[in-house]
Write a structure and sequence with these properties.
It is a single chain. A five-stranded antiparallel sheet has the order 2-6-5-4-7. A four-stranded antiparallel sheet has the order 3-1-8-9. The chain has a single domain, classed as Alpha-Beta Complex (Cyclic Phosphodiesterase, Chain: A), CATH 3.90.1140.10. By secondary structure, it is α+β, with helices and mostly antiparallel strands. It has four helices and nine strands; from the N terminus they run βαββαββαβαβββ. β4 and β5 form a beta hairpin. Helices cover 27% and strands 37% of the residues.
């Protein structure tokens, strides 16, 4: 079994902005217990698969290739701070055309062929930068984040990746298993 998820990569500029925000927040509230996302792990999650039988991976690759085949590269924009309750600090991503949502639904549907449950929660295009481990001291950190001005940088989403997530004592590591370029012919 491998712990898998499907994600979209972000640009280096978007990564720099997210890291600067993380650094500012850590400096502003050093006592808050949080897991800060490593620079190399920043991504837009499209589908979490969880523990998946390794024999299923090659079949997933085939259906994912088909699921993304109608999509070409498209533009997104970091748009501001957001939080999910008292546990997740994130940066909102504008998807005015709804392309990420359509891509996510296509991927979700493709994965359901293998008994992977469809996602029933509303999908929000975002970039997680931290997960709060103890929410008793997190309110001020979230307030600081939500009042932050995040540079609204545009970037092109041009590929998605099937990742394996490996959890070690030293942290979480993501290993790309397969890359799917978005290059549909218009």
């Amino acid at each position: 079994m491998k712990r898998l998820f499907i994600a979209a990569e972000i640009s280096d500029e978007a990564r720099r902005i997210a890291l600067a925000q993380s650094k500012d927040l850590r400096s502003a509230s050093p006592a808050v217990k949080a897991s800060w996302v490593k620079p190399e792990n920043l991504h837009i999650t499209l589908k979490f698969l969880g523990d998946t039988d390794e024999a299923l991976i090659r079949h997933l690759v085939c259906v994912l290739t088909e699921a993304v085949s109608e999509f070409g590269p498209f533009q997104l924009r970091l748009s501001g701070p957001m939080a999910f309750g008292k546990r997740v600090i994130a940066i909102n991503i504008d998807d005015e055309a709804g392309t990420v949502l359509r891509l996510q639904k296509s991927i979700d549907s493709a994965c359901s062929q293998f008994g992977i449950p469809l996602e029933h929660r509303r999908f929000h295009t975002h970039l997680t930068i931290a997960r709060i481990r103890d929410d008793r001291s997190a309110a001020s950190l979230i307030d600081i984040h939500l009042s932050s001005d995040i540079k609204k940088v545009k970037f092109v989403l041009s590929r998605i990746v099937l990742y394996e997530s490996i959890m070690l004592r030293s942290g979480v590591f993501y290993i790309p298993l397969e890359t799917f370029p978005l290059n549909a012919k218009s």
